[in-house]
Specification:
Lipocalin; alpha+beta; globular; about 200 residues; eight-stranded antiparallel β-barrel
Amino acid sequence: MYAHILAVLSKYFKCLSFYLVYNVIMKIKWLAFLSVGLLLAGCLTQASWIGSLPHQNIDVARYLGTWYEIARIPNWFEGDLVGVTATYALKPDGHVEVRNAGYDHVLTGDKKTEIGDAWIPDPKETGQLKVSFFWPFSGDYVVLYRDEDYQVAMVGSGKDLLWILCRKPSLSEATYKKLINKAEKLGFDVSRLQKVTQNSLN
């Protein structure tokens, strides 16, 4: 009799345990889907906003080469990198290789390099590119400003991502202020912009 009761209780607790575990898993899955949904909704909103901003088309051939990161709105993927450069090279398929490099915390720190792929979805809008560092995910790369000589540029990707780039590791204060004013008029929170330490000997 006791053995029978124990067997019944054992089955009951097994079923109860399965039920509890199942509910926990379902809740985790629901939260995961919700999080992804909110993230995608946020990305779509950001993309719509950045896509509505005035941009400058580029001659891709003239835009190629190395750019120094003068300032940026802090982001999680660059962290505390300094001496950051972005080098663009044309690929056989017409896409552009993006090679981002920087040093961890200090110019003598460990060098980190990330390689991505960029392309122009609409040939008529060469200032609006897509960049991917991890397929199938991609982000906007919108050229908000570039000078006639392709020496200075400002690039955005949503409200929280902004970079000021230059062909040299330094930029005149007058030009920097001009770009800050432009970014502010476009709706960016320029108070978040931080200058990036560069090696002046380059």
